[in-house]
Write a structure and sequence with these properties.
The complex is a heterodimer of chains A (85) and B (460). Chain A has 85 residues and is mainly α. Chain A has 5 helices and no strands. Chain B folds into 2 domains: 328 residues, Rossmann fold; 89 residues, GMP Synthetase, Chain A, domain 3, CATH 3.30.300.30. Helix content of chain B is 26%, strand content 29%. Chain B contains 11 helices and 27 strands. Classes of the chains: A mainly alpha (85), B alpha/beta (460). Chains A and B meet through helix 2 of A and loops of B. Chain B: Pfam families: AMP-binding, AMP-binding_C. Chain B: This is Acyl--CoA ligase.
Chain lengths: 85, 460
């Protein structure tokens, strides 16, 4: 079974493909504007989707909004590389 | 109310007044019970009381008795015993009539009215004194908050019954509770028509469908939500549709696709829409099978019982059959004056089309979104049995448009979800559903969809 972080990444990439954004966006790409290009409504949609799937999401529960895909995924667990250090 | 029963009982004391499964109560029996209750209310000196009773025949008798004596009756929702104590306190009731001696009514006294004597052979008698004022208290369904007590007088409630023709062969389904304004309207129509009220328990669409088939229902009045669920039950069981002669919808905006579906399913039935509310009464019915009201409703003269106009996109009503005020509030200065309905409308060609309740508007990042047009689109998507559009709180935009869907039997959720997305693709960004969830049931209250956020059900 995939870890929550990997499961969240799969959900996000599927979502990006569905809303015609680049599903292969790098993890350090900015979520908004010239990066992945999410607008506020798309971000709200992603927030609801993640909450439905995993019970919580970083957009609703964090003090500051995540700025990259990696920061979103960090909400669901540290990266494997980080754990290995 | 008592006069209607007296006339019906005088003309046909053995005619069926109320059918509750195997139990049949005649007009003569109903009147005897009502006259007995009236004598008891008078001897006890009661001026107002609440009742918690799910038996339609007993409640009708109490309604008639209270109206005869000028005693204010308020029926509590019969499916919610846990709310009785709170309602009794909120609406200042010191007496609650119930068949359950163990009912928790808080500080109110519980009296068992089921042991009160009847007055046999009361048909044609005038045993109870005529009262000058005949107050009645109706609780709103509370779909947008705590229920309010709407003060009526029977003289206004029965104002439209003189137009009812005698049609004793009709058997009307009681899909509303008698604690609801719409339930009272059905009851008054049935009593004035000397017809029969079929009152299944529980008041679910499934029980209603069974009553239609087994108890010979010919006429039925219910909310669009009730009809949607009934059509779903019908599709699920695969048996032929009952042969109805009259379908009436009210209490919520009626979507065009639902009208078309009812027309296909019940080809022999006349279809009417009623625009009514506890506060302003009934404005009459529309029978042209098109969604919304005819523009001509805005051109009724000063003599009309109910007149309408549009103010800033909201329907206003002036009613001579409406409420006298809310319980606990000062009396309304002019009960016949203009008042806002809370229904948002738009003039489209020759129609007044409903856009939703002002309290249902979804604020998405500062943009106001009406849920009904979206709900209508989603409900038309193949594979959707019932849908609810509501404002789901969002930390980013305040709210987003969310859709809860009860899928039709055998529907593929992934395909349905994609189809909903396509059906809403041309909507403005704020109005496009951002959350689509499949659920087993949609929250309803008083057979109306609840669109405000419900924390326990609004997540996961």
């Amino acid at each position: 079974m995939a870890s929550p972080r990997i499961a969240a990444e799969n959900v996000i990439r599927e979502f990006l493909g569905r809303i015609k954004k680049d599903p292969a966006s790098p993890l350090d790409a900015p979520l908004y504007a010239d990066g992945v290009g999410l607008d506020s409504l798309e971000t709200a949609e992603l927030s609801a989707l993640l909450e439905d799937e995993f019970g919580s999401d970083p957009f609703s529960s964090a003090d500051e909004l995540p700025q990259t895909l990696a920061e979103v995924l960090d909400h669901y667990g540290a990266a494997v590389e980080a754990e290995a250090v | 109310m008592i006069e209607l029963l007296r006339r019906a009982a005088e003309e046909g004391p053995d005619r069926a007044a109320v059918v509750i499964h195997e139990q049949v109560v005649s007009y003569g029996e109903l009147l005897a019970r009502a006259e007995g209750y009236a004598a008891e209310l008078t001897s006890r000196g009661l001026r107002r009381f609440a009742t918690f009773d799910g038996d339609a025949a007993r409640v009708i008798a109490l309604l008639a008795a209270a109206s005869a004596c000028g005693v204010e009756l308020c029926q509590f929702p019969p499916a919610e015993p846990e709310s009785v104590a709170e309602l009794a306190a909120r609406f200042d009731h010191t007496v609650v009539l119930s068949a359950d001696p163990d009912l928790d009514a808080g500080d109110a006294e519980v009296l068992d009215h089921t042991v009160w004597p009847t007055v046999p052979g009361a048909a044609g008698a005038q045993s109870s004194p005529a009262a000058d004022a005949r107050p009645h208290l109706i609780l709103t369904t509370g779909t947008t908050g705590a229920p309010r007590g709407v003060r009526h007088d029977w003289s206004r409630l029965v104002r439209g019954v003189h137009r009812v023709r005698e049609t004793p062969h009709e058997r009307w389904l009681l899909a509303y509770g008698l604690h609801q304004f719409a339930g009272l309207q059905v009851l008054l129509h049935v009593a004035a028509a000397r017809a029969t009220l079929v009152a299944p328990a529980p008041r679910t669409p499934r029980a209603g469908l069974r009553a239609m088939r087994e108890l010979g229902v010919t006429h039925a009045s219910a909310t669009p939500t009730y009809w949607r669920f009934l059509l779903t039950e019908l599709a699920a069981d695969g048996a032929p549709a009952p042969s109805l002669r009259q379908i009436t919808l009210g209490g919520e905006a009626v979507p065009g696709p639902l009208l078309a579906q009812l027309e296909r399913t019940f080809p022999d039935a006349a279809i009417s829409q009623v625009y009514a509310a506890s506060e302003f009464g009934s404005s009459g019915s529309v029978k042209d099978r098109r969604a919304g009201l005819s523009r001509s409703v805005l051109e009724r003269g000063d003599d009309a019982d109910v007149a309408m106009r549009i103010v800033d996109g909201e329907l206003w009503v002036r009613s001579r059959v409406g409420m006298l005020g809310y319980h606990g509030d000062p009396p309304v200065e002019d009960p016949d004056g203009w008042r806002a309905t809370g229904d948002l409308v738009e003039l489209v060609g020759d129609r007044v089309e409903f856009r939703g309740r002002s309290s249902d508007i979804i604020n998405v990042g500062g943009t106001k979104v009406h849920p009904l047009p979206i709900e209508e689109r989603v409900s038309s998507v193949p594979g959707v049995a019932v849908a609810r559009v509501w404002g789901r709180p969002s930390a980013l935009t305040g709210n987003i448009v969310a859709v809860d869907v009860v899928p039709a039997p055998g529907a593929d959720p992934a395909r349905v979800k994609a189809a909903i997305g396509e059906a809403c693709a041309d909507l403005a960004g704020a109005a496009r559903p951002r959350s689509i969830r499949f659920v087993d049931e949609i929250p309803v209250r008083g057979s109306k969809i609840v669109r405000r956020d419900i924390p326990q059900e609004g997540r996961g």
